[in-house]
Protein backbone atom coordinates (compact mmCIF):
# COMPACT_ATOMS: atom_id res chain seq x y z
CA UNK A 1 0.00 0.00 0.00
CA UNK A 2 1.33 3.34 -0.90
CA UNK A 3 1.78 5.74 1.94
CA UNK A 4 1.85 8.65 -0.36
CA UNK A 5 5.57 9.29 0.30
CA UNK A 6 7.96 9.59 -2.65
CA UNK A 7 10.29 6.61 -3.13
CA UNK A 8 13.93 7.64 -2.57
CA UNK A 9 16.29 7.16 -5.45
CA UNK A 10 19.12 4.59 -5.23
CA UNK A 11 22.32 6.56 -4.42
CA UNK A 12 24.39 3.81 -6.05
CA UNK A 13 23.04 3.50 -9.50
CA UNK A 14 24.15 0.44 -11.47
CA UNK A 15 26.80 1.06 -14.09
CA UNK A 16 25.88 0.14 -17.55
CA UNK A 17 27.61 -3.08 -18.65
CA UNK A 18 29.49 -2.98 -21.95
CA UNK A 19 27.86 -5.04 -24.57
CA UNK A 20 30.69 -5.01 -27.07
CA UNK A 21 32.48 -4.95 -29.27
CA UNK A 22 35.41 -5.29 -26.80
CA UNK A 23 38.75 -3.43 -27.47
CA UNK A 24 41.68 -5.60 -28.53
CA UNK A 25 44.33 -6.27 -25.79
CA UNK A 26 47.67 -4.40 -26.13
CA UNK A 27 50.30 -6.32 -28.10
CA UNK A 28 52.77 -8.37 -25.99
CA UNK A 29 56.37 -7.08 -25.81
CA UNK A 30 59.22 -9.38 -27.01
CA UNK A 31 61.92 -7.34 -25.29
CA UNK A 32 62.45 -9.85 -22.45
CA UNK A 33 62.77 -12.74 -24.88
CA UNK A 34 65.24 -10.82 -27.01
CA UNK A 35 67.34 -9.94 -23.98
CA UNK A 36 67.30 -13.56 -22.86
CA UNK A 37 68.50 -14.74 -26.27
CA UNK A 38 71.20 -12.09 -26.33
CA UNK A 39 72.34 -13.15 -22.85
CA UNK A 40 72.47 -16.81 -23.80
CA UNK A 41 74.58 -15.95 -26.84
CA UNK A 42 76.78 -13.40 -25.09
CA UNK A 43 77.77 -15.54 -22.07
CA UNK A 44 79.67 -18.19 -24.09
CA UNK A 45 81.31 -15.47 -26.14
CA UNK A 46 82.42 -13.67 -22.98
CA UNK A 47 83.73 -16.90 -21.52
CA UNK A 48 85.72 -17.65 -24.67
CA UNK A 49 87.09 -14.11 -24.84
CA UNK A 50 87.93 -14.18 -21.15
CA UNK A 51 89.77 -17.46 -21.59
CA UNK A 52 91.74 -16.04 -24.50
CA UNK A 53 92.61 -12.93 -22.46
CA UNK A 54 93.80 -15.05 -19.53
CA UNK A 55 95.84 -17.21 -21.90
CA UNK A 56 97.48 -14.08 -23.31
CA UNK A 57 98.21 -12.51 -19.92
CA UNK A 58 99.32 -15.65 -18.04
CA UNK A 59 102.79 -15.90 -19.66
CA UNK A 60 103.47 -12.26 -18.82
CA UNK A 61 102.38 -12.78 -15.20
CA UNK A 62 104.52 -15.91 -14.89
CA UNK A 63 107.50 -14.14 -16.44
CA UNK A 64 107.13 -11.29 -13.96
CA UNK A 65 107.03 -13.68 -11.03
CA UNK A 66 110.09 -15.56 -12.28
CA UNK A 67 111.98 -12.28 -12.69
CA UNK A 68 111.19 -11.45 -9.05
CA UNK A 69 112.35 -14.89 -7.89
CA UNK A 70 115.55 -14.59 -9.90
CA UNK A 71 116.24 -11.23 -8.26
CA UNK A 72 115.62 -12.73 -4.82
CA UNK A 73 118.03 -15.54 -5.69
CA UNK A 74 120.65 -12.97 -6.69
CA UNK A 75 120.16 -11.16 -3.38
CA UNK A 76 120.66 -14.43 -1.48
CA UNK A 77 123.97 -14.98 -3.22
CA UNK A 78 125.05 -11.40 -2.57
CA UNK A 79 124.40 -12.00 1.12
CA UNK A 80 126.57 -15.11 0.93
CA UNK A 81 129.28 -13.12 -0.86
CA UNK A 82 129.25 -10.46 1.85
CA UNK A 83 129.55 -13.17 4.52
CA UNK A 84 132.51 -14.65 2.64
CA UNK A 85 134.30 -11.30 2.66
CA UNK A 86 133.53 -10.73 6.33
CA UNK A 87 135.00 -14.17 7.04
CA UNK A 88 138.09 -13.16 5.05
CA UNK A 89 138.39 -9.98 7.10
CA UNK A 90 138.17 -11.98 10.33
CA UNK A 91 140.43 -14.91 9.45
CA UNK A 92 142.66 -13.66 6.65
CA UNK A 93 141.28 -15.96 3.94
CA UNK A 94 138.08 -17.25 2.45
CA UNK A 95 136.75 -20.33 4.25
CA UNK A 96 137.88 -23.76 3.11
CA UNK A 97 135.38 -25.75 1.08
CA UNK A 98 135.12 -28.19 3.98
CA UNK A 99 136.79 -29.23 7.22
CA UNK A 100 138.14 -32.72 7.97
CA UNK A 101 139.06 -34.80 11.01
CA UNK A 102 142.44 -36.45 11.65
CA UNK A 103 141.60 -39.31 9.30
CA UNK A 104 140.64 -36.98 6.49
CA UNK A 105 136.90 -37.57 6.81
CA UNK A 106 134.88 -34.53 5.81
CA UNK A 107 133.07 -32.91 8.71
CA UNK A 108 131.55 -29.54 7.83
CA UNK A 109 130.82 -27.25 4.90
CA UNK A 110 131.90 -23.70 4.25
CA UNK A 111 128.21 -22.82 4.62
CA UNK A 112 128.45 -23.82 8.27
CA UNK A 113 131.66 -21.85 8.81
CA UNK A 114 130.17 -18.53 7.61
CA UNK A 115 127.03 -18.76 9.80
CA UNK A 116 128.18 -16.00 12.21
CA UNK A 117 128.36 -13.65 9.22
CA UNK A 118 124.89 -14.72 8.03
CA UNK A 119 123.31 -13.47 11.29
CA UNK A 120 123.27 -17.04 12.63
CA UNK A 121 125.73 -16.77 15.53
CA UNK A 122 123.55 -18.76 17.96
CA UNK A 123 123.14 -21.58 15.46
CA UNK A 124 126.89 -21.62 14.83
CA UNK A 125 127.56 -21.93 18.55
CA UNK A 126 125.17 -24.87 18.83
CA UNK A 127 127.20 -27.00 16.39
CA UNK A 128 129.82 -29.51 17.52
CA UNK A 129 132.52 -29.01 14.91
CA UNK A 130 134.51 -31.98 16.20
CA UNK A 131 131.75 -34.30 14.98
CA UNK A 132 130.40 -34.78 11.45
CA UNK A 133 127.58 -32.57 10.26
CA UNK A 134 125.13 -35.50 10.28
CA UNK A 135 126.07 -36.74 13.76
CA UNK A 136 123.07 -36.92 16.15
CA UNK A 137 124.68 -34.14 18.18
CA UNK A 138 124.24 -31.82 15.20
CA UNK A 139 120.81 -33.01 14.11
CA UNK A 140 118.93 -30.00 15.45
CA UNK A 141 121.21 -27.60 13.61
CA UNK A 142 121.00 -29.65 10.40
CA UNK A 143 117.20 -29.45 10.53
CA UNK A 144 117.25 -25.66 10.84
CA UNK A 145 116.15 -23.75 7.78
CA UNK A 146 118.45 -20.99 6.47
CA UNK A 147 116.27 -18.91 4.07
CA UNK A 148 119.25 -17.33 2.28
CA UNK A 149 120.57 -20.78 1.31
CA UNK A 150 117.58 -21.65 -0.91
CA UNK A 151 116.78 -20.30 -4.37
CA UNK A 152 113.12 -19.14 -4.44
CA UNK A 153 112.64 -20.84 -7.82
CA UNK A 154 113.76 -24.24 -6.57
CA UNK A 155 111.44 -26.85 -5.10
CA UNK A 156 113.58 -28.35 -2.34
CA UNK A 157 113.32 -29.38 1.28
CA UNK A 158 113.94 -26.44 3.66
CA UNK A 159 117.05 -28.18 5.01
CA UNK A 160 118.59 -28.35 1.53
CA UNK A 161 120.52 -25.71 -0.39
CA UNK A 162 120.76 -24.67 -4.02
CA UNK A 163 124.07 -22.86 -3.53
CA UNK A 164 127.28 -24.84 -3.82
CA UNK A 165 130.96 -24.00 -4.23
CA UNK A 166 132.86 -25.08 -7.32
CA UNK A 167 135.54 -27.22 -5.68
CA UNK A 168 138.80 -27.86 -7.51
CA UNK A 169 142.53 -27.55 -6.65
CA UNK A 170 142.74 -24.64 -9.11
CA UNK A 171 139.64 -22.88 -7.74
CA UNK A 172 139.14 -20.49 -4.84
CA UNK A 173 137.28 -23.24 -3.00
CA UNK A 174 140.07 -25.78 -3.32
CA UNK A 175 139.39 -28.13 -0.41
CA UNK A 176 140.71 -27.85 3.14
CA UNK A 177 142.77 -24.72 2.49
CA UNK A 178 141.44 -21.20 2.82
CA UNK A 179 142.50 -19.06 -0.15
CA UNK A 180 143.59 -15.45 0.30
CA UNK A 181 142.37 -12.72 -2.05
CA UNK A 182 145.92 -11.96 -3.13
CA UNK A 183 146.20 -15.53 -4.45
CA UNK A 184 143.41 -14.89 -6.95
CA UNK A 185 145.66 -13.79 -9.80
CA UNK A 186 142.87 -13.62 -12.36
CA UNK A 187 141.13 -10.97 -10.27
CA UNK A 188 138.19 -11.32 -7.90
CA UNK A 189 135.74 -9.97 -10.49
CA UNK A 190 136.76 -12.68 -12.96
CA UNK A 191 136.69 -15.69 -10.64
CA UNK A 192 133.63 -17.70 -9.57
CA UNK A 193 133.44 -19.32 -6.17
CA UNK A 194 129.74 -20.25 -5.75
CA UNK A 195 127.05 -21.29 -8.20
CA UNK A 196 123.43 -22.28 -7.90
CA UNK A 197 122.32 -25.74 -8.99
CA UNK A 198 118.99 -27.27 -9.96
CA UNK A 199 116.65 -28.74 -7.39
CA UNK A 200 117.72 -32.23 -8.43
CA UNK A 201 121.33 -31.40 -7.49
CA UNK A 202 120.64 -29.65 -4.18
CA UNK A 203 122.45 -30.89 -1.06
CA UNK A 204 121.81 -30.61 2.70
CA UNK A 205 123.07 -27.17 3.62
CA UNK A 206 125.33 -28.48 6.40
CA UNK A 207 126.88 -31.26 4.32
CA UNK A 208 130.46 -30.82 3.01
CA UNK A 209 129.30 -31.60 -0.52
CA UNK A 210 129.43 -29.17 -3.41
CA UNK A 211 130.10 -29.42 -7.14
CA UNK A 212 133.26 -30.39 -8.97
CA UNK A 213 134.82 -28.45 -11.82
CA UNK A 214 133.78 -31.02 -14.51
CA UNK A 215 130.22 -31.09 -13.20
CA UNK A 216 130.03 -27.28 -13.27
CA UNK A 217 131.46 -27.11 -16.79
CA UNK A 218 128.89 -29.66 -17.99
CA UNK A 219 125.91 -28.17 -16.16
CA UNK A 220 124.42 -26.75 -19.34
CA UNK A 221 124.38 -30.19 -20.95
CA UNK A 222 122.16 -31.53 -18.18
CA UNK A 223 119.31 -29.25 -19.20
CA UNK A 224 118.41 -28.69 -15.54
CA UNK A 225 118.16 -25.35 -13.78
CA UNK A 226 116.09 -23.16 -11.48
CA UNK A 227 115.71 -20.31 -13.96
CA UNK A 228 114.92 -20.36 -17.67
CA UNK A 229 118.08 -20.03 -19.71
CA UNK A 230 120.73 -20.35 -17.01
CA UNK A 231 121.57 -19.59 -13.40
CA UNK A 232 123.26 -17.15 -11.03
CA UNK A 233 126.93 -17.35 -10.07
CA UNK A 234 128.78 -15.56 -7.27
CA UNK A 235 132.17 -14.02 -8.05
CA UNK A 236 134.95 -13.48 -5.54
CA UNK A 237 134.37 -9.73 -5.45
CA UNK A 238 130.87 -10.35 -4.10
CA UNK A 239 129.06 -9.59 -7.36
CA UNK A 240 126.41 -11.89 -8.82
CA UNK A 241 125.87 -12.45 -12.51
CA UNK A 242 123.50 -14.56 -14.56
CA UNK A 243 125.37 -17.19 -16.58
CA UNK A 244 123.45 -18.44 -19.60
CA UNK A 245 123.18 -22.16 -20.22
CA UNK A 246 124.95 -21.84 -23.57
CA UNK A 247 128.12 -20.35 -22.05
CA UNK A 248 131.11 -22.09 -23.61
CA UNK A 249 132.69 -24.86 -21.51
CA UNK A 250 136.15 -23.29 -21.80
CA UNK A 251 134.79 -19.98 -20.53
CA UNK A 252 133.15 -21.72 -17.58
CA UNK A 253 136.41 -23.44 -16.71
CA UNK A 254 138.51 -20.29 -17.01
CA UNK A 255 136.12 -18.37 -14.75
CA UNK A 256 136.57 -20.89 -11.96
CA UNK A 257 140.36 -21.11 -11.92
CA UNK A 258 142.03 -18.44 -9.82
CA UNK A 259 145.13 -18.39 -12.01
CA UNK A 260 144.82 -18.70 -15.79
CA UNK A 261 148.20 -20.48 -15.83
CA UNK A 262 146.84 -23.36 -13.68
UniProtKB/TrEMBL annotation:
It holds the Pfam family SBP_bac_10. The chain crosses the membrane at residues 33-61. Residues 8-26 have a biased composition (Pro residues). Signal peptide: none annotated. Keywords: Membrane, Transmembrane, Transmembrane helix. The keyword RNA-binding does not apply. InterPro entries: DUF1559, Pilin-like, Pre_pil_HX9DG_C. SUPFAM superfamilies: Pili subunits. The keyword Ligase does not apply. Residues 1-26 are annotated as: Disordered. Residues 62-155, 161-205, 224-249 form the DUF1559 domain. PANTHER family: GENERAL SECRETION PATHWAY PROTEIN G, TYPE II SECRETION SYSTEM PROTEIN H. This is DUF1559 domain-containing protein. It comes from Roseimaritima ulvae.
Amino acid sequence: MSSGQPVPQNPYPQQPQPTGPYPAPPPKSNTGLVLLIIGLVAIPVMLVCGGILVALLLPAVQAGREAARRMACSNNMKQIGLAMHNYHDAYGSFPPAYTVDESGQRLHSWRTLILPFMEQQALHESIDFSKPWDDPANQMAANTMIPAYACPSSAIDPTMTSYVAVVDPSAVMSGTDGIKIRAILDGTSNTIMVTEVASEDAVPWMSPNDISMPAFVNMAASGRGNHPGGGNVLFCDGSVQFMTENTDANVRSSLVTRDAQD
